[in-house]
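As promised in the previous annual report, we have extended the structural survey to additional targets. Below is the entry for ABC transmembrane type-1 domain-containing protein.
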Amino acid sequence: MKHKNGQAYLFLTPFLILVSIFYVIPAVLTIAMSFTGLDSSFVWEFNNFKNFRKIFLDPNTITIVRNTCIFVGVAIAATVVLDLMFAILTTYFIRTDKYSSIFKSILMIPMITPAVVYSVLWIWLLEANENGVINKIYLTFKDSEPINWIAKYPMQIVLLATILTSIAYGTTIFSSAIKSIPDNQFKAAHVDGAGEWEIIKSIILPNIRYHIQFIALWETLGLLTNYVTILLITNGGPGIKTEVWALSAYHKAFTDQQYGYGAAISLVLILIVLVLMILLNKVMQKQNER
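The corresponding structure token record, generated without further manual editing, is:
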């Protein structure tokens, strides 16, 4: 038995070393850094809870929290609804794998496109002059000046760009879950005279409720820590209209070179994510018990 355990530890050692180097040690350093005034001078001077007090005293914190709540809340709701809609459409209504696969492949394009290329495409489409694609379409129907779409509708644009990259994953998960539902349930419902909406409400949604919970949790955690699309399209602007919590940590650490302060913002975000995970797991457990 000891020999077998020794072999297991031997095989696990490289993995544990890599995890420690790339995850554990950086996490410990981030926690330590959040209690320092580390800046461009790279002098480690501990300042206790000064960074955390600074977060709560910052007048922009309320706006950033509100932006984060709007961004995460709207994106999750829209993503889950669209995932369900496309999954039911391509799995229940379109039974031919050929056509449903083509549709799902189209949904995959935003997800597999590199973030920089994807964001540049959005900036090109929404260019503020008459050469912008959206402005060209707009000016053909209305005689007016070109619109700076990104400046006028920044949050709407980053939400749309983010949602489009999230649809494919949830749609694939939900489609697989719907395919696993026994056909006799659908046949029995049709024999009883149930309509399509009744079948969706009474058979499909109850059978995939755990998958819905998983996608909601996955998207929540991903969106709270996601800032790349916002960074590349609006950089948090104009002003701080699209500045979210994770992007604020990036700006403080790498733009303003306030590394200790940026680490403190990141640590607060990590704690929020942990609390949300615990709460969501408890809510899901209670729902499952019912």
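The longest helix spans residues 61-93. Residues 72 and 222 are 9 Å apart (CA to CA). These points will be discussed at the next consortium meeting with the crystallography subgroup.
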